[in-house]
Amino acid sequence: xxxxxxxxxxxxxxxxxxxxxxxxDESLSFWGGYDFRTGEIIxxxxxxxxxxxxxxILAVPFSKGSxxxxxxxxESVRAGTAxxxxxxxxxxxxxxLASIVAELMxxxxxxxxxxxxxxxxxxxxxxxxxxxxxxxxxxI
Amino acid sequence: xxxxxxxDKEMLDGRRGPAAQFAMQILVRMADVYEARELMDISHxxxxxxxxxxxxxxxxxxxxxxxxxxxAVPTSxxxxxxxxxxxxxxxxxxxxxxKAARQMLAYEKMGASPTWTCAxxxxxxxxxxxxxxxxxxxxxxxxxxSVIGARTERYPDLLDICCAITGRVPAVGLHLTENxxxxxxxxxTGVPAALQQDDQFFPVLGHLVGxxxxxxxxxxxxxxxxxxxxxxxxxAAAVASxxxxxxxxxxxxxxxxxxxxxxxxxxxxxxxxxxxxxDLQSARAELTTTDGRELDMVILGSPHFSLAEFERLAPLVAxxxxxxxxxFLITSSRLMKEAAHEAGVLAPIVDFGARITVDTCILxxxxxxxxxxxxxxxxxxxxxxxxxxxxSRITFGSLADCVRSAIEGRVVRDDSIWQPTV
Lengths: 140, 422
Fold this sequence. Notes:
In chain A, strands 1-10-9-3-6-7-8-2 form an eight-stranded mixed beta sheet. Chain A has a two-stranded antiparallel ribbon with strand order 4-5. Chain A starts with 5 loop residues before the first strand and ends with a strand. Chain A has helices at 69-79, 93-106, 117-121, and strands spanning 6-8, 10-13, 17-23, 34-35, 40-41, 57-59, 85-88, 112-114, 128-131, 136-139. By secondary structure, chain A is of the alpha/beta class. Chain B folds into three domains: 6-177, Aconitase, domain 3 (2-Layer Sandwich); 181-286, no CATH class; 297-415, Aconitase, domain 3, CATH 3.30.499.10. Chain B is 39% helix and 13% strand.
């Protein structure tokens, strides 16, 4: 995180969110990796297995694995167990689509912001962050 | 900046009906995400969205169907959440079965073919080399791009059906020749042909490559055997489970890789990594989560068991009986089960004690009763996902190991070819 506590990314899906950061440098499949009933990461191969991501700002480089990742995320929005925002490295179409469809279906989108590698690397679990529509991420 | 064709605009404006408008709205938003300049035509779609997870997937499907959605191109369907004819034999609740069946019906009403399989490339709807398609289902995407040379982006659920309804996709990514070049060179070094001929080799290699590739297109050099189609199917399923691989090249094997240089479009690899026997041994070990011998069920068929796989299994089980304590389940498609029956290879498998579930699998349908805790499989995809999704313990082994274990009623593996050499 820069000295002024602000980094700027590309707002893939624009929106506002606040929450505690949950950061991993390992990619994640939400199908087989996220329980939308509990908001918990369940992929036994993933270092965050057993950690609840619901309501947190999840920083994960990109999605991997199943195409059903989007459907699991949509279910989690409906169930109120989705992350508050998702921060990635490259543009991740899976996370973006889930948010776009959630907005169309339920009027509830979550921000998806793509960050430069160095900015992503500056994030740490436990930081309190605010994401805004411009793609700015502030330490609060 | 995205430029739409007149027909795209008609869909977006609602002049081609509310379903095409809904689908085109999503497609246009996604074209912006992909930073596409235009949309392009596809001539086939494969829909992963038909899998029932809960209320949201069902509401999405029924919203589209109620808007009068129709697919614009030939469209196959991936697995559903229920085996409509067989679910009562398992732990599926009537409520789940009813909702999953409603979701199946919604997609059938849109005009998609009821293939209900995660191996659509082994049906009559197999695409051809160079064909532009929009496919969901990670294993099918990897197979279609890599083994067939058809062209699809890595489409997620909910978008695949929008592409099918509009017949359009953002003109980006793996649809375009220049984005299909290899990026990462993986060299098999000192991996003997005897090991490569083992039926565990390709799924284990796929599991390892998926982890090494991250978000890059891998090129594998050093395969000295001629894999059969089901080997490549197992590789594709594994590489797209442990990783995000949508396209791989195997030099001398897959159609866009007659040589390593061709696979890289004559450019240099971004990185080169050597793969040794030791790396493969470690990767294989990761696919097993128990060191116990207890066994409740042998599970085969992720991706769905093919006719050729039924034909290979039949002589291994003919005249034998599975141990009464061990269930033996094969997940396949209704078409493939019928083909196996007609070929005369289903009877010895059923006589052995095997059961066949069609249209779905143990990961897509909550069918396994709680007392089934320990599984054995020859599928790296089952081995990857079952511990997380089902909470089960699993052993990965060869097809012959799976059969022998089912007969003996406990896990037995012939590991001789995989033993570390000092």
